Amino acid sequence: MVAVGRIANTGTTTGLVTPRGSTRVPAPLWRGLDHGPALVVLVPSASRPRELPAAWQPVAQRFQIAWCAVPTADPEARLDRVEDVLETLADRNTRTQVVAHTALTAVACRVVAEFPGIVRGLVLVGSGREPGPTGVRVRRVPAADPGDLSSPALVREIHAAVERADAAAGARLRLAGVAVPGPTGEIALGRVRLDLARG
């Protein structure tokens, strides 16, 4: 796999060559927090924006955001970059939610299944069939034009869905009588670490 590493909070990534075929898969655009909960945004596109859309700036104040353009021609064969992003987040044990355009539902479900230890939820943008079992809570944000993930109204809906998922995970922890400090939803008990924020 191609290694993709984040350099500070500049959004710069390394690893610009794709190992499969001649089609270049764009490097992810990293923005937002350096640490803390993350959103992996999957967009059907052959290119990524130079900057995070303006409507996403408030979301970037609460989350790390990895904006991943996934080419629509055979998207499941071109997941190296997305997998590298999730491997980086898994190495940091980062609570993550995947936000995906409905055209990439199969891709999103595959990624969620590969990283059950960190992915807490899936938000699908647009109408379509419900996915099969994913192991995480799936939320759907209806959209007249799901192809434009830069619409302020749509981003507010996505952000609300993500926040509801986080709140639901917190409520499950409160019901269990466990106080969990920090944004990762984990506590350490001696040498045993418990991941309690499965959502």
Automatic annotation (TrEMBL):
It comes from the Bacteria. InterPro entries: AB_hydrolase_fold (IPR029058). The lineage of its organism: Bacteria, Bacillati, Actinomycetota, Actinomycetes, Pseudonocardiales. This is Alpha/beta hydrolase family protein. SUPFAM superfamilies: alpha/beta-Hydrolases (SSF53474).
